[in-house]
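does this look right to u?? magnesium ion version
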Amino acid sequence: MRNSVIRKFLVLSLIFSFIGGCSRLDPAQLRRASQTKVLMGTYVSVDVCYERGKAAALSDAYDEVWARLKEVEGGMSIYDPQSEISQLNRSYPDAVPVGHDLYYVLESSTRLSELTRGAFDITVSPLVHLWRDSAQEKRIPTKAQIALAKDGVGMPYIELLEDQRARLLKSGMSLDLGGIAKGYAVDEAARVLRSKGFQDFFIDAGGDLYVGGRSCKGTPWRIGVRNPAQRDQIIDVVEVRNQAVTTSGNYEQYFEIDGQSYSHIIDPRTGVPQKGIVSATVIAPITSEADALATALCVLAEQEGIELI
Ligand code: AMP
Ligand code: MG
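got this back:
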């Protein structure tokens, strides 16, 4: 599953990046560095525009960025049984202490769930598993199975205690941060780069992007959004500065049953994969929020989504 996701991102990267235009500093002094690693089940690339004399500082900054991203992944990956989220998922009915990263993401997820009228819901995990397992067995889940999985779905079943502890309130429930964790990781990478004195950069975690400052040519970074109906084409180009740009859709990752594809994004209200919205791109200052909102916009009906925007 992980490998196929990675392959898909390799072949069908959601976002293209471009640079162009004229410079603010002497272009001869500016360099563009680029590093890519596989993290969180996707390719994460970090491009930085830097002055020639700062190569050593940049190398240190890269080390710190990758270490921080590994740390975030280590806390939030549901594929790692030792991760903090996996431990929380096994903790019912106890209240357990959680680290700052996880607590922040749980708090944000609660807020975003309210904002999106329940479309964004990290307790959707039992439904994600049900649909994934059913697809592997080439069958559609029964109504009874959906009802059973839905029983543990609902943000009120997460209790956040003031001393940075969290408690799951329903047996069988579990949390899936797939719709927000990558965005949070991107924000953390941006924070590290800025703390090291780098303002101009471009971070892409499998379609969740944040762009800081400008490109090496002094112009805003330009981001092409893939046309979901024609994957080799770009439907729009956005020019942004100090903004996140995230895209969610039902055409890159999906389950297939009887030749029919089903979105990997589940409507928590019905227990069924979302359909209708093919792709949603959000531009916002905070990547974790943009990440969650793009996921939610795929769930909401078009009119509801436009009202939310
Ligand atoms: P994204 O690619 O950011 O749109 O996130 C999709 C991932 O989030 C899925 O693969 C699931 O792990 C998880 N997910 C599915 N449905 C929802 C939902 N309604 N709310 C929050 N997370 C979801
Ligand atoms: Mg998302």
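DSSP finds nine helices and 16 strands in the chain. idk if thats expected tbh
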